[in-house]
Amino acid sequence: MGKDIKMAKVRVKKSNRQSRLALTVVFFMMVVVVVICFVHIARLQEKDKELTIVQNQLESQLEDANNKAVELEEREKYMKTKKYIEDEAKNKLGLVNSDEILIKPKEDDD
């Protein structure tokens, strides 16, 4: 019987060693997983900052494009008016209305 008790104690010691080793391995694996998660989180945060900068730039470009579109719409409306036609005729062709007098400065022939 004494031999059986000694064998049981040896088995318990081996079992305890194996349990401690298993716990150490599991703990190490958990630490590795946590470190990997933190690295991944840091990368995602950096990517988020970059994407936020790109988003702000794109929003600014969109606002500029919208402003340009409004300006073009206003110009298109103006170009459809009689006033535009008269202004272009005066500026490009030198025409005047029948009730207007055109005064040109005298050109010096030196």
Question: Can you walk through the features of this model?
Answer:
- There is one protein chain.
- This protein has 110 residues and is mainly α.
- It is 82% helix and 0% strand.
- The longest helix is centred in the middle third of the chain and has 78 residues, at 2-79.
- The model has no long low-confidence stretch (mean pLDDT 86).
Keywords:
110 residues; mainly alpha
Order of helices and strands: HH
Task: Please give the alpha-carbon distance between the first and last residues.
Answer: 139 Å
Question: In percent, how helical is the residue content?
Answer: over 70%
Which secondary-structure class do the elements indicate? mainly alpha
Mean pLDDT: 86
The parts where pLDDT drops under 50 for at least 5 residues are: none
As a percent range, the share of strand residues is: under 5%
Count all strands and give the number.
0
User: Please, how many helices?
Assistant: 2
| Biggest β-sheet description | none
Shape: rod-shaped
Give the secondary structure arrangement, pairings included:
Elements: H1 2-79, H2 82-93
Task: Compose a concise summary of this entry.
The chain has helices at residues 2-79, 82-93.
